[in-house]
Amino acid sequence: MASTTVEAGAAGHGAEPRGKRTDDGQATYLIAIAEALWEEMERDERVYLLGEDIGAYGGAFKVTEGFLDRFGPERVMDTPIVEETIVGMAAGSAMEGLRPVAEFQYADFMSSGYDEITTVLSRYHYRSGVPMPVVLRGPSGGGVRASSFHSTNPEPWVAHAGGIKVVCPAFPGDAKGLLKSAVRDDNPVLYLEHKWIYRRIKEHVSEDPDLLVPIGEARVRRQGDDVSIITYGAMVHRALEAAAALEERGTSVEVVDLRTVYPYDEDAVLRSIEKTSHALVLSESYRYAGIGAEVAATIAEKAFEHLDAPVERLSPPNLPVPFSPPLEDAFLPQVADIEAAVDRLSAW
Amino acid sequence: MATKTKKQPDTSLPMPEEQLQHVLYLLKLTRYFDERMEALYRQGRLPGAIYSGRGQEGTHVGVVMPLRPDDSLFPTHRDLTAQIAKGLDLKRVMAQFWGRIDGYTRGRDGNSHIGDWQGNRTFTVMSHLPIAYPVACGAALAYQRAGDDRVALAICGDGATSNGRWHEALNTSAVYRLPVVWVVNNNQFAYSTPNRLEFPVPTVAERGAAYGMPGVRVDGGDVLAVYEAARAAVDRARAGEGPSLIESVSLRWRGHAGHDPANYMPDELLERYMAEHDPVKNFETWMREHGLVDDDSLAELQARIEREFDEGYEFALASPFPEPGDAFKGNWTDDGYWASEPGRGGGTEY
Questions:
Q1: How confident is the model at residue A3, as a pLDDT?
Q2: Which residue is closest to A124 within chain B, CA to CA?
Q3: ipTM above 0.90, yes or no
Q4: Looking at the complex, does the CB of residue B117 fall below 8 Å from at least one CB of chain A?
């Protein structure tokens, strides 16, 4: 993962088919997301999709491949390039009882719809009591050589708005269960799927159409005693890789996958710190005023007496994600960076 | 409502007499409301801000008259008159101005940043203009998908037509042939900025052609002309024929908000509009000329309006403030805060 190779088609412009589950039931993250959408659309005819190139083309990453044939153009709506109107239209239709799932071709382009997201979606219910069951989906994150405008992690932008739940699954099972929960939630939810994970991570995923993963619950992905890594999204996989290497050197690392970053599972984080007394907060979103900053502040505030070392943060600076492999690798936290941070914490 | 000697229905009238009387009531009520609220503001007895819609009542009442209770309205802060015409309860409107629990936003917002979606199908106003235009597309999309004949009607000012969302929303509504009516309340000034610094074409209405939709320009000082244009646009939307654009021209008689003396407004322009395009005076004259009102009925109407204002004012001041802790409730649907929302308006039958 830390190699400096450029992966062909990594940014998703390959138009390769979405693929199928393996014979033993393993699904990629991409397939899991598609299954969640498909099953929710079968379950509830109020659910519909809107976005750019999601119909005949099947979406830039092929999440909605085949949906148009099954559900028709009314429920798989190709829109003009109108991000503000995609969000506003989702909001207005939700106010009239529909349950829209709007796709941003890349999560980066949410900034083109920002006012409707932060002003309408985030604040309407607080001021009116009118439910706003809207899901916004967007492929986020870097590590795929997609540079500044196709690698953004916008979760802090939206978490800060305050009225939108933000979920960032790391595994196919969570991706499926969280998306189904998001569709069934009466509040707006931003669902950030990480494009690095799409076709790389697969696991056995339940075929039960009502298996939900609750929004707001973290999951301990690896038990450990010495240091806790609190993270989410693609960084979970780097943390697990680092933890395996550290285990061999005698350091026992616990990896807590937040899964939902707003509102996040404070209790799960504090429980882990009580156990290990060492906290590394790892995020792919920006360091300054980012998700990691919030988690670190909470640990310092509420678990001070359990800490044997200062809380450490590992996250990129508030700069554009660069393209060239050595630049991007320097920019994003790598496995070696995580190992070094854990070693620093263990030395206290 | 003012009563008159019963006579045979006059089929030459543009709408039934009862509705014409209601139009007069709305015009005079909202004019009186606007003037009284400004006086209270200047006396320091009204907290927050006011955004006068004076001089534009013909636009606001005219475009709402063709709407049914189940049609939706997406207004701006300037369009409180349109919301009252749609059926909002004056008592709860005034409770909103004083930050009370009985206001439509339960004290979470003030003044004309108001709405009553559950009752009268009006969107709770937001300041970023024209932010409600894309949302109106969504409501219209839901009507289209349900296969019914409801209509969404959205209002913005001349200044908001410069914003990218105005283009996005008109374009998208035309692409999908959505049942929506776009109203531009061209009161000639966006805060202090005149039309010539907002757009390079002579009229907003002609921009309809760029989106393949009809665009008409009407005199906002003539409520019946506005009504006719709106009725045609609403009928077209109901029939599944797609969106329309209406530019209703008036003048903003007062400043952008209560604090603004509007020194940029040319005196002769204001005087001309007040003399020739006063929608309230013009319609009252029309009613007189058609024998539908007289001095007695007008005096009775005025007394009713003043009584309703006073009752609203008393209701507002008697309504409790929200509990301080309410500030932290009702963000998510799950905490039940909004489940106890007091009685909704029932919608006005025209």
A1: 41
A2: B124
A3: yes
A4: yes
